[in-house]
């Protein structure tokens, strides 16, 4: 049992070790050309180019000589340390990064005010994590002190080799979270920097659809000031900026943004929190002037739900989907969840007068492609049962009476003999 437990613990570690042996990845580079038009306005033209991210010492040559290659030197914040799983599930995107007018020097060894920056983001295609690394490139020329840095960006040739070093990594292992109501959930946010950080700011914001962004938490290492709650301040020193949402509500749904600012860099990761509450389904019959079968889905979120009613008149036959189904209007409860009812009226006709079994099928996003099924015996079956029950009782009584009478007659005949 101990050996089995150790092997389980080593599985993710083995995945990390495997990726550390990877020497290069194919990426997509979003290149930007920035200029000022005749009216004095800044315009940008984006182009998408194939590139290679190569993990190696800057002195080595590019492994694929016909592509743009980013040669990333070894550092304390090697993004490969944060990767789990096979490489073929990774999507790699490289973008230019602008500091604007900032001329703050990156404080680690070799940093200059003229550094040019790129971001490299690794996304797991199954949504397991997103990792963004900041790459520092020292250009051969200096930039102007009187205009934004993007006017001095280097031009990247078709087979350009760019020597870079990773200086900061920001990641989340929960890019998309699904959780029910009245639950506690943690939104993961982790970062690492290549030096001891004297000036660090961590912030969390919530962006709901159609509303202004709301600040949930902020922390400044230089002032020690903390605003809001949900993040363990002691964990920030170790690179853990995760946010805990204590009791989820419908209003908790939205896009959460974890931001880490280390001058001159400002990185962020987006985490989508989805509130998913499954419906409570019931299927009943109503004995009215016109009997009906009612299927109710209660307490579900989000709004969209599908309710289908079926009818089965004899065993072995495929249930027939009913088309004359009526729906109530959606009812919204105080907690933000919804309810909906679907019903069918059983009007007197040859097809409804007999015995039938009715079933209800409910589909909702919370069921992840599955369905909730309920079945009930139709009112016609109970009507038939009530009509035949007195006859059955009379028949049984008559059989008992005849048996007793014959037995009494038989006993009297035996005595006379």
From TrEMBL:
Entry keyword Cytoplasm: no
Entry-linked Pfam families: C1-set (PF07654), V-set (PF07686)
Transmembrane domains' residue ranges: 384-405
SUPFAM superfamilies: Immunoglobulin
PROSITE patterns per UniProt: IG_LIKE (PS50835), IG_MHC (PS00290)
Domain Ig-like: 165-270
Keywords: Immunoglobulin domain, Membrane, Signal, Transmembrane, Transmembrane helix
Cleaved signal peptide residues: 1-18
Protein name (Swiss-Prot/TrEMBL): Tapasin-related protein-like isoform X1
Organism listed in the record: Salvelinus namaycush
Primary gene name: LOC120049644
């Amino acid at each position: 049992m101990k050996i089995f437990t150790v092997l389980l613990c080593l599985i993710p570690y083995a995945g990390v070790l495997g990726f550390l042996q990877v020497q290069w990845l194919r990426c997509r580079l979003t290149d930007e050309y920035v200029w000022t038009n005749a009216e004095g306005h800044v315009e940008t033209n984006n182009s998408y180019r194939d590139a290679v991210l190569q993990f190696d010492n800057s002195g080595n040559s590019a492994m694929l000589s016909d592509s743009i290659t980013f040669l990333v030197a070894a550092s304390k914040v090697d993004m490969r340390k944060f990767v789990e799983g096979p490489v073929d599930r990774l999507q790699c995107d490289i973008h230019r990064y602008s500091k604007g007018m900032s001329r703050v020097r990156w404080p680690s060894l070799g940093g200059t005010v003229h550094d040019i920056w790129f971001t490299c983001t690794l996304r797991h295609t199954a949504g397991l994590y997103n990792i963004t690394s900041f790459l520092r490139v020292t250009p051969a020329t200096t930039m102007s002190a009187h205009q934004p840095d993007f006017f001095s960006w280097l031009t990247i040739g078709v087979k350009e080799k760019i020597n870079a070093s990773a200086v900061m990594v920001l990641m989340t292992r929960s890019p998309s979270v699904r959780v029910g109501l009245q639950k506690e959930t943690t939104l993961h946010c982790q970062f690492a920097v290549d030096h001891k950080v004297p000036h660090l700011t961590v912030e969390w914001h919530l962006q709901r659809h159609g509303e202004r962004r709301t600040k949930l938490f902020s922390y400044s290492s230089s002032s020690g000031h903390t605003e809001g709650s949900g993040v363990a301040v002691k964990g920030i020193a170790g690179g853990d900026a995760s946010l805990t949402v204590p009791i989820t509500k419908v209003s908790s749904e939205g896009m959460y943004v974890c931001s880490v600012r280390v001058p001159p860099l400002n990185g962020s990761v987006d985490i989508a929190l989805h509130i998913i509450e499954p419906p409570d389904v019931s299927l009943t019959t109503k004995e009215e002037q016109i009997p009906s079968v009612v299927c109710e889905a209660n307490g579900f979120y989000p709004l969209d739900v599908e309710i289908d009613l079926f009818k089965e008149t004899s065993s072995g036959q495929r249930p027939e989907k009913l088309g004359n189904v009526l729906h109530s209007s959606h009812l919204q409860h105080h907690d933000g969840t919804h309810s909906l009812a679907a019903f069918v009226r059983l009007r007197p006709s040859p097809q409804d007068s007999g015995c039938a079994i009715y079933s209800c099928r409910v589909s909702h996003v919370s069921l992840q492609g599955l369905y909730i099924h309920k079945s009930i015996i139709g009112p016609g079956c109970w009507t038939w049962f009530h009509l035949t029950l007195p006859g059955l009782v009379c028949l049984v009584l008559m059989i008992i009476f005849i048996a007793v009478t014959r037995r009494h007659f038989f006993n009297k005949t035996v005595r006379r003999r």
